[in-house]
Every structure is written in C-alpha cells, then in structure tokens.
Design a protein that fits this description.
The structure holds three protein chains of three kinds. By secondary structure, chain A is mainly alpha-helical. Chain A has 27 helices and four strands. In chain A, strand 1 and strand 2 form a beta hairpin. Chain B is built from 21 helices and two strands. Chain B is globular, with a radius of gyration of 22 Å. The chains are: A mainly alpha, B mainly alpha, C mainly alpha. Chains in contact: A-B, A-C, B-C.
C-alpha cells in the first residue's frame, strides 16, 4: 500500500529531474513524442497507485469489519522523549475511500492533462508538480499521525502554490498569476497557523500526536470540554483555510488562474476537501466539543449560501465553478457540523466526480475556445462539441441533485441529516442553496452550450485573425476522461442509496465507514426523531425545487434573455453586490491588508525595520566584525606567542580555580 | 600476570595488531616493489577493511578487561571505542582515496611508502588513544599520533608554508605534550598509579582534592585540548591546517580530533565518575568542577573559532577555524555530562566526518583545477563547475546546520541534550554562534553563485572517480538529514564504556 | 578562603614581583657606561671566533638517532635474553618480532640511501624528475 505513496514521488523525481532533458531530446520542446513519454510516466505512476489502492480496497473488503485497519510503519522518523513521529501509514475505511478518490480522479485528470497541456513549454514541469501533489495528498490521507498529516498538508499547499502560478508570466485579471498564487499561499498560512496551534494543544493534552493514541485518549473521559473546544476551533481554522470556508475562502476564486486540470484536481476534487477529511478524521475531537460542531455547521451553511449567491452573476466559467466548489464544500462542513460524517465524506466523493467533470468540461470548452473564459462569449457550443456538452449536462444535473445521479443521493442525505440533527433552519438554507446551485449551474450550461452563438463577433479582428477556426471537439485523450467521469457522476451515488430505498441492506457507504465514526456518533447521540414520511417529503421538495430552478434558468436564459438583464438593472445594487462578491476582497483590503501595509510602510519599515532592527543587526554585525578583527590579530603566526597564550590560558584557569576554591 | 594471559589478552587488540601488520606490509612492499607504488593505497584500504571487521566485533563487547586475571589492564575494548574506531577507519579510507586524486601528494611520488606508513602510524596512535585506560599509554599513543602527523604536515616539502606548518606543529605539540606529562607525573606522584580505573577508586577516598588536582587535570587537559584544538590551545590549528597538504588537513580535522575526543571522554568519565543516575546523568566526584570548566572552554572555543573565521579569505583557513568552532560544539556535548550528551557527540561526529571531509575534498579538487584556495577565486564557480559548487554548497550548509541536511540533525540532538539538562543559556550562546557561522559559510556560496567571475572560466568536468567519491560523501548528508534513526540507534548502543 | 597551595601561589607571585622590582630599581639607579669589552659575549675569558649559529649537517642527527635506537634496543634485549627460555617459543617470537621491526626500519633506511653521507639521488635529480613525471602519468591512467 505504501507504494501508492512512493510511486507518485518516483514520478515526480523522474519528471522533475529528467523532464527537461526528455523534452529537450529531438530539439523542439513541444515534440509530441517527448510529451508522450513524460505524460505516460506522469499518469502511469498515478494509474499504478490507483490499481494498488483498488487491490488494497478489495483486500480490506475481504477482511472482517474489526480488522479493516492496518498500520504500515515505514520507519521511525523522529523519536524524542514522548514524541514519536513515524512515517507510518494508516489504511482504514476512511483513508481508503479518500485514496481511491485521489488516485482515481487524479489518474483521470492526469490523462486529460496530456491533451490539455499539449504544446506547453512547461509540460514536464506540470507533470512533475502534479505527481508531487498526489504524493503529498496521499501522505495527508494515509498519515497515521498529525505530523505526517501536516507534512502532506503543507506539501499540497506548496503544490497548489506552484500550480496556481504555473503560468507565472501570464496576466490574470488585474494582476498576475503569481499574485494569485501568493494570495492562496498567504491565506492558507493563516489556516495552517490555526492547525499548528491545534496540533500543539493536542500534544500538550494527550502527550502524543499519533491518531490512534490521541483518539483513544480522547474518547476516554477526563479531558474538559473547553480543551476540546480549543483544539477543535484551532483545527477548524486550519480546515477553513484549506477548504476555502468563511472567512478564508477568498483565495479559491483567484486560484483559477492555474491551468484547468489543476483547478479540477486540486481546487475541486481533492486538496480543498482535505479540511473536510481532517475534520472527519478528528470526528471524535469535534464530537467532544458540540459547541464547536455547531460553529462548523453554521459556517458551512453560511458559506454554502454565500458562495452560491455569488455564483449566480459571475461570467467567468471557471469562477462560477469555483464559487460552486466553495458552496459544495460548505455543504460538506454542514454535514460534519450536524454529525453526519459519513454523509459528508460521501459528498466529498460524489463532488469529486461531478466537479472534476465540470472543470474538465470547462477546460475542454476553454481549450476549444482558445482560452476565452467569459460565458457571455459562448453559446450554442453543443453543436460543435456534443460530447463535452453531454457530459457537462450530466454533471450539472448531478450537482443540482436530480435523481438518480450521484449528487442527488449525497446532497439529499446531508439535507436530511441537517433537518434531523441540526434543525429546520439548517435545512431551509441548505435547500435554498441547492435551488440556487441548480439555477446558476444551468445558467452556466445554457449560456455555454445552448442558444445563439455569441463568439466571434464582439472580439476585435486582430485577436481573431490567427484563430479563425471554429470551436471543435477536444481530442480523445481529453474526451474519454470526461466520459468516464460522467459515468461515475451518474452511477456513483448508488453505493450510498439511503435506507428507505434499499431496505434491509441499509446504506452501504455508511456501513463501510461506520467503524471509523462510531465513537464520535455515539458521543453525539443526538439523532432526532424522524419518520420515513418526512424524509420522502423533504426529498421531494428539494428535487422539485431543483427541477424548478432548472426550468427557471432555461426560461430566463434561453427564452427571455431580456429578463436577466432587466432584473440586473432593476436590482442594480444587489447585482453589484453579488458581482463584486459581497466586496469581501475589498473588505479585507480595507480592514486587514491596508492597515497592515500602512503600518508596515510608515512604522514597521521606516522606523522599526530601518532604524531599530537594521540598526540592531548592523550594530551587532559591526560589533562581531570588530571582535573578529581582534581575534584575528591574535593569530600572529609566531609560534612563541602561541605558546605564551597557552601558558597564559593554563595560568588563567588556575587562577580561576584558586579564586573558586 | 603470566605470559599465557598476556598472549590471551592479545585478542582485545586485534584491530591494532592488524594496523601494525599493515605498517610492516607497506614498508616491505615499498622496499620490494621499488619504483612501483601503485599497490600501496590498495594494501592500505584492504588493511583498513580487515581492521574494521575486528572493530565491528568489538561492538558486542560489554565490560571486558584487557587482562584475563581480573585486574584491569591498559587497554579497553568496548562499543564506545569501536564507534570512534569506525569513524577513524572510514575517514582513513576516504583519505586514501583523496590522496589518489591529490596533486600535492602525487608530486611527492617517491615517498609514497612513507606517506602511507605514517598515516598508519597515526591510525595506530589513534586506536590506542581511543582504547587506552592508562595515563602512560595515553601519553605514548598521543606521541605516536603526534610524531606521525608532524612529519605528514610537512610532507610535501615544496613550499615554505609546508615546512613552517610542520615546525610550528612540532614546537607546539612538544610544548603541550610536555605540559601533559607534567600533569601525569603529578597524578602518579599523588596516587602511585596511572590506571584510570584505579585512579577512580583512589579518588573516592576523602583525602584527595584541592588545588593540586586541578593543576594536574588542567595540565592533562592542555595536552588533550591541543589535539582537539580547544581554546586556548588551538593556535596551531589555522597555521598547520593551512600549510599542511590538504589530505592531511582533512585527516587531522576528523580522525585526530575524533581520537582526542574519545580520549577526553574516557578520561573524564572513567576517572571522575561517581555514579550514573537513572536518567543518564553522570554524577562526578566532587573533586573538580568539570562542568563549568568544560562549558567555559567550549564557549570560548566556538566563539573564537567562529569570530576568527568571519574574515578569512583562504578556504582551508576558513575550514580550520570552522573546525575549531565545531570542536566547541562537541565539547558542549561533553559538558552536559550525561548519556544523552554523549549520544549527541557520537551522532555529531559521525555526521561531521562526512561533511568536513566532503568540504575539504571539494576544496582540494577545486584547487587542483584552478590552483587556488582563495575564496575570491571562487567567484562564479557555480556556473563553471556546477556539480562541485553544488556539493560544497551542501557541505557548507550542513556544517551550518540547516535542514534537511545531516548537520541539522547533529545540532538538533546536541541542543536537545543541552535543553534537557536545563542549560538554556549555554544553548542560546551556541545557537548565536551558529548564526555567526552562517555568515562565513554563506559568504562562500555568495561568491560562487551571485558574483560574476572576473575572467571567463571554462566549464570543468569532474573525473568519474572524484564524482563517485562526492556521491559517497553527499548521500549520507541527505540520508541522515531525513532518515537518521539508524544512526541514532547506533549511537545509543555505542555509549557503553568499559566498566559502565 | 585560600588553601595551602593558594598561599604558595601568592608566594610565587610575590617572589616574581620582588625580582622584577629589584631589577627595575637597579636599572634606575645604576650607572650605565658600556665599553667594548663589557658588551662582548663572555666565553670563558676567550675571544669568540665566528658566529655560534653554525649549521650542523643534518646527517649527524640521523646517525645519532640510529645509534640511539640500537642503544635502547640493547637495553631492552638484555632482560629479555635473561628470561626468554622460560617462555619457550612464544617468548622467542616476541623478541624476534621486535628485532624484525628494527631490522626492517634499518633496511628501509639503507635502501632509501639515508645512511650515505651524501644522498645518492641528489646527483641524478634531473633524471629522477623526468622518471617521476612518467610514473605520475602512468598512475593517472591506472586510476
């Protein structure tokens, strides 16, 4: 199983060390064959990892439930007093599911990237980073202690940074991609700081950083709830950073500056769900602090609604998807917050399928539209690229929660649990968000694939002249991954069919994850009363609402486009608010960034840094310098003088002794 | 003591016997083969490998005396000694390979026989230093080591610096060994014995103590301090290191220092110990305040070394001062007076051997190519010799102690030992010293990578042999920087001194 | 509180101080009228001829060293000769090894020409040097 971790590392080493050489063979860097070699190495290692994970999955499946947890200890890394950090991997139900998602979806996206990144001068660099990312992500998932988890956590952050800024010489919106990368990095640092604090607190409280030990000690009594609350809130701050929740979500929309496969893999399917995974992994700690769990639920719900409303008005295809990701992540945290841990993980899985599909589909569109990303300039693309349109439609239906596609099962389960465990308000906002989601997803779909062709007219001739060709379907290497993901998005939900439909089998997915969460769920024990009638009713409401939203979107954007612009004009203030993403970036600029910049400019830089710190450093430096000159002078090169110093040294030692005796 | 038991006790000095036999073999081969000297290094390496087998055997020796009669003899054979002997052997093998690619040594081709004989003389001296438990043998082994190294320091005879180094070394060495002998004679006069274990039982008696003990011990310390170049007995180091052939400089900075440290640790622990408590702290006899003394000396040593290194323009001299500073860090590990400190020293030494040898090796190759050891001539080397520059960058970064290199692990364990012993202030001073050291190490890197060369330099290729050697030295730096558990475990199992 | 040795140390300091002060005071009050004779190095009443810093030939030391080694060998061998019969072959071997090592050293010295008053290789130094360079080249190719 550890091979699944090491293989991507191997791929990274090969592509990282020799990638430039490989692509240099044969002269031109964009030589197709060289790209093939790199692409096959890059995706091959991931594919192998995926195979191994599948094998490990079935092996684990064959075991009785109690033995489904193995720990592979590679080596002890650090052992200082009670701190014992090993490169140890924990293979259990939760990590296996996550590993399957990461390697499986990762593999598909790698293959897709061979087509998408074709001709890029950083082709080998791209695959090296992607492999490194998978390596770090697998470390994060399979870690059996917090330190290794943190290592992976930082590793994926680094890869995310590298890949967002992959086209470092390209302009992005008002600034450059490296600014977007920096933003992601800095915002993540804030979250990481919280995570680190949580880790320290865990070590202080439980005297260990090993998952098993910490969680066993946590489920025993004797630790005050406030301690748990502090640990949980710090860990949750970490999760909000990585998983783009309020208030640290601002980096994710900007992260779309990276290549689209990166957005699909890192900023939709895998890395951003790391926060969800971490909360699920530490479910026992969160369950011991119910107050914080409520905070998680509230933050999740708010984020879901908030991001969904922004999504309505965005025009950049990737931006819409980014806000939709934030919104879906909010759902997952809502699930965590109401104690429906396995429902949350289930949504992680289905979301990985359909969101990766959406992004890849968007990538396919962008690819064929020559990197035009504004949906107002699309339209009628279904004729030109039917496969992309079809798969995109499936994904959009899935995310909207239309049965029997995967999104329906997972989303509905979360909504149901939020109603049963959390309360009516959670459900209401959740359902509302689901309607909005359906609305803006289909707005996206209709504007992109249906209706009139709006491309090729507004653009100035100069940019069009050399790309005069029509939009076209993407090559097979890109389309086949789309189809695979579409199939998964369509049927992926069946492993989590709720109890009321499947009868005595129960929810297979729940049954599989049950051992991981049973302690936490037992601790919570807040399952409210509910009936099958209620469940069916709620389900019907949400499906009907989503379907209604879809038709509403169709009505507005296909039949009467004037309504959209009319509404926008009528409610200009609201539209502006949404268009500018609630001015959160500006708010941060005004409240946090500008004051910091100002103080750092006027005080920290001019006075504290220039005068005090530089003065101090220079002072110390010159002090050391002069001391060093004196010491150097002592080295005269005269042997007799050395002997004298030696004698003086001995005499001084003796004198000191005489005084001390 | 009868003859038979004498013969029996020979089994405890198997490595030393092997080394002695190799000396004879080298001399005889040199006599027989005449002009053909190419066999000598291979005999040396074979001999070292054979010796290492016997040394590894000693790892399993627990408290064994060299004398079967129950009385304690002059020689000990224990895991602690074996660890240091392995360090000596490994560095010797590496030095033999260095010598093969050193221009300086190649020029003195006719005297290769003497070169290897004297190196083995040094090894023999070091082996006895590491395992001796008797003041007489300590003195003799130091002399054996010193006499061989005096000659080697002036081996090439070509340059004035070379002879100067040798002469300074011999004068200074003579003075310090005289001082040491004086100390030993005082101890002998007071107790009537020179055996460390017997001395320890004598010192438990109440009538010992006071100034005269301090005098004797400090005099002995002066002798050992000369070997490990602890301040204020370090003055010879820069001059000798700069003047001596670079292979010998590298050798002196590792092996000779390792032997000196082994001797110092054994001398202090065996002679002055009262008991070792449960958490591994050594309770010393109340005769001498070794702790404050060692702390004082070590802080002085590292500060002098680091500060003087700041303005050095010659690479060998810079490394000489840096090795003085490292002796200071190592002494700090001893000053903790605990098993943890001892483990830290062992780890430090194992890592220090690789990084220092590596640094000297690269300096030597670069000197072979560009004919200079001046830091100013390193300008732009990062572009004309990318691999060599990368290697020396790694070695220097490791010497500074920055992760993920092994040097960081060495310092980490040292600081853990210090903090564990509540010596926070000392740890802070050591840390500040590390910061100072960063400056002069980085200066070299700056010259190599950030400064444009004054004249265009052709790209230089590294010979396959040197390349292989560098890989051998680079791998442990990274390996132990990330995966250091085996090294730590080895060190932990090697702290057993005879009798404890 | 000072120990006995501490007192001795102070006594030493006093003694040194006393000497220094005495010389210094004498220098202050004595008359200084140097003449040629007064400034000469005193050599048992004789005039010195030539510089005393002549170089002795290094060979003297080599011969003296070898003599010393074999002198010490005799000192060590006599007691061995008296008792080695008790230890049989082993005892004989110990002495033999000792003598063998000394003999080997001697042979080495002889072969290297260190026993000649003037080392023979010095005469052919030019010839030697070319040979050496060839050898180096050869070794390089071997390595």
């Amino acid at each position: 199983m550890y091979l699944t971790v090491l293989l991507p590392l191997l791929g990274f080493i090969i592509n990282g060390a020799f990638g430039s050489k490989i692509s240099a063979i044969g002269g031109s860097a964009s030589d197709r064959r060289n790209e093939k070699v790199i692409g096959i190495i890059g995706s091959g290692v991931i594919g192998l990892s995926f195979l191994i994970t599948i094998i490990a999955f079935f092996q684990t499946l064959a075991l009785p439930v109690e033995e489904r947890k193995t720990i592979i200890n590679l080596f002890t890394w650090l052992k200082v007093s009670s701190l014992d950090v090993g490169f140890a991997y924990q293979v259990d139900q939760l990590s296996l599911i996550m590993a399957l998602i990461v390697t499986g979806v990762g593999f598909i996206i790698h293959v897709y990237s061979i087509g998408y990144m074709h001709g890029d001068k950083g082709f080998w660099r791209f695959f090296a980073y992607m492999n490194l990312f998978i390596f770090a992500m697998m470390n994060l998932i399979l870690a059996d202690n917090f330190v290794l988890l943190f290592l992976g956590w930082e590793g994926v952050g680094l890869c995310s940074y590298l890949l967002i800024g992959f086209w470092y010489d390209k302009k992005f919106e008002k600034s450059t991609t490296s600014d977007a990368a920096k933003k992601a990095f800095v915002v993540n640092r804030i979250g990481d700081f919280g995570f680190l604090l949580g880790m320290f607190l865990i070590y202080l409280t439980f005297n260990s950083l090993n998952f098993n030990e910490v969680f066993t000690r946590a489920s025993a009594f004797g630790v005050p709830e406030t301690t748990f609350a502090f640990i949980a809130i710090f860990l949750f701050i970490g999760a909000t950073g990585k998983s783009a929740q309020i208030p640290l979500f601002v980096w994710l929309p900007d992260a779309m500056a990276g290549p689209t496969p990166v957005s699909a893999l890192i900023h939709a399917a895998t890395m951003v769900t790391a926060g969800v995974y971490m909360v699920a992994r530490c479910s026992i700690i969160f369950a011991s602090a119910p107050a914080i769990l409520t905070v998680v639920a509230v933050i999740g719900t708010l984020t879901a609604l908030f991001a969904a409303t922004i999504g309505i008005v965005q025009n950049d295809i990737k931006k819409v998807l980014a806000y939709s990701t934030i919104s879906q992540l909010g759902y997952m945290f809502l699930a965590m917050g109401v104690g429906a841990f396995s429902a949350g993980i289930f949504h992680v899985m289905t979301h990985a399928f359909f969101k990766a599909l959406l992004f890849l589909g968007a990538g396919s569109v962008i690819h064929s539209m020559h990197h035009e990303q504004d949906i107002q300039h699309y339209g009628g693309l279904r004729k030109h690229m039917p496969k992309t349109a079809g798969t995109f439609l499936i994904a959009a239906l899935a995310i909207s929660g239309i049965p029997p596609l995967s999104g329906f099962f997972s989303k509905d389960e979360i909504l149901w649990y939020s109603f049963a465990n959390g309360g009516f308000l959670f459900w209401l906002i959740g359902a509302l968000t689901a309607f909005i989601t359906a609305f803006y997803m289909f707005r996206l779909y209709f504007l992109t694939f249906e209706g009139k062709e709006r491309f090729g007219h507004e653009k100035p001739a100069s940019t069009r002249s050399n790309r005069g060709e029509h939009p076209h379907e993407s090559p097979n290497v890109m389309v086949i991954p789309l189809i695979i993901l579409a199939v998964l998005s369509a049927i992926g939900g069946f492993i989590g069919i709720p109890e009321i439909f499947s009868g005595e089998h129960g929810n297979i997915f729940h049954g599989w994850l049950e051992p991981v969460f049973k302690n936490a769920e037992r601790k919570l024990a807040i399952y409210g009363l509910h009936t099958h009638f209620q469940e069916i009713l709620l389900m019907t409401i949400s499906v009907a609402g989503a379907a209604g939203s879809i038709f509403f979107a169709r009505y507005i954007y296909l039949r009467k486009p004037s309504i959209a612009s009319g509404t926008a004009k009528k409610f200009k203030s609201i539209y502006n608010l949404l268009w500018n993403k609630y001015f959160v970036d500006e708010l941060y600029d005004a409240t946090v960034i500008n004051p910091i910049v100002k103080t750092s400019d006027s005080f920290l830089w001019r006075i504290a840094d220039n005068k005090i710190i530089d003065g101090l450093v220079n002072g110390i430096a010159s002090l050391i310098e002069s001391a060093s000159v004196v010491i150097r002078k002592m080295q005269t090169g005269v042997a007799q003088f050395y002997a004298v110093i030696m004698m003086v040294g001995i005499a001084a030692a003796l004198f000191w002794i005489v005084l001390s005796l | 003591m009868n003859f038979q038991s004498l013969i029996n006790s020979l089994q405890y000095i198997k490595p030393e016997i092997v080394i002695a036999v190799v000396i004879v073999l080298v001399v005889t081969t040199d006599l027989i083969m005449g002009k053909n000297k190419s066999l000598l290094p291979w005999i040396s390496i074979a001999g070292l490998i054979v010796a290492s087998f016997f040394v590894i055997e000693q790892f399993s020796f627990k408290a064994v005396s060299s004398n079967a009669n129950g009385s304690i003899g002059m020689i000990t054979a224990d895991p602690f000694g074996a660890f240091f002997k392995i360090i000596v052997i490994v560095s010797s093998i590496i030095i033999v390979f260095f010598s093969l690619s050193s221009n300086e040594i190649k020029e003195a081709f006719e005297r290769h026989g003497e070169y290897y004989t004297l190196i083995f003389g040094m090894i023999l001296g070091m082996f006895f230093m590491i395992s001796s438990a008797d003041l007489i043998l300590i003195y003799l082994s130091i002399e054996l080591l010193s006499l061989s190294s005096y000659i080697l320091a002036g081996f090439t005879k070509h340059s004035l610096r070379n002879s100067e180094a040798s002469l300074k070394y011999i004068i200074y060495g003579g003075a310090s060994s005289g001082i040491m002998l004086f100390g030993i004679s005082i101890i002998y006069g007071l107790t009537g014995t020179t055996n460390l274990y017997l001395l320890n039982s004598f010192f438990h008696l109440p009538q010992f103590g006071g100034f005269i003990f301090w005098l004797a011990c400090i005099l002995i310390f002066a002798g050992i301090g000369f070997k490990i170049s602890a301040a204020p007995f370090h003055f010879w180091t820069p001059d000798v290191y700069e003047g001596a052939p670079i292979t010998i400089t590298a050798y002196l900075s590792i092996a000779s220092k390792a032997a000196g440290f082994a001797l110092l640790i054994r001398f202090i622990k065996v002679t002055f110990i009262d008991s070792v408590d449960a958490s591994g702290y050594w309770q010393l006899l109340n005769l001498i305040d070794w702790k404050s003394f060692l702390i004082l000396i070590s802080i002085l040593t590292m500060t002098l070394g680091n500060f003087a290194a700041l303005w050095q323009s010659n690479m060998k001299r810079l490394l000489a001062y840096s090795s003085i500073a490292h002796a200071g860090y190592l002494l700090l590990g001893l000053a903790v007076l605990s098993d943890q400190g001892l483990i830290a020293i062992l780890i430090y030494f194992a890592i220090y051997a690789f990084m220092n040898l590596g640094a000297f090796f690269v300096v030597m190759i670069i000197a072979n190519k560009i004919g200079s050891e001046e830091i100013d001539d390193y300008k732009g080397l990062g572009y004309s010799m990318p691999f060599l520059s990368f290697s020396i960058a790694v070695f220097l970064i490791s010497l500074t102690g920055i992760p993920p290199t092994a040097g960081f692990i060495a310092k980490l364990y040292l600081f853990i030992a210090l903090v564990d012993a509540k010596m926070i202030a000392v740890a802070v001073i050591a840390l500040l010293n590390t910061v100072v050291s960063l400056y002069y190490y980085i200066k070299v890197l700056k010259n190599m990578y950030l400064v444009r060369p004054e004249k265009e330099m052709p790209a230089v290729l590294v010979s396959p042999a040197a390349f292989a050697m560098l890989i051998v030295l680079l791998v442990p730096i990274f390996l132990f920087g990330i995966y250091f558990t085996p090294l730590v475990n080895l060190a932990k199992s090697s702290i057993g001194l005879m009798g404890f | 509180m000072l120990t006995e040795f501490g007192k001795i140390f102070i006594f030493m300091l006093t003694a040194i101080l006393f000497t220094v002060v005495a010389i210094f005071v004498a220098r202050l009050i004595r008359p200084a009228r140097p003449t040629h004779e007064k400034l000469l190095t005193y050599e048992c009443g004789e005039d010195t001829i030539g510089s005393p810093w002549v170089k002795f030939n290094i060979r003297f030391y080599v011969v003296a060293l070898i003599f010393l080694i074999f002198d010490v060998e005799v000192v060590l061998l006599i007691p061995w000769a008296l008792v080695y019969q008790q230890f049989g072959v082993g005892g004989f071997l110990v002495g033999f090894i000792f003598l063998f090592l000394l003999g080997l050293g001697m042979a080495y010295e002889w072969r290297k020409g260190d026993l000649e008053w003037i080392r023979p290789e010095l005469k052919h130094s030019v010839l030697k040097k070319t040979k050496t360079e060839k050898q180096i080249l050869k070794e390089e190719t071997v390595a």
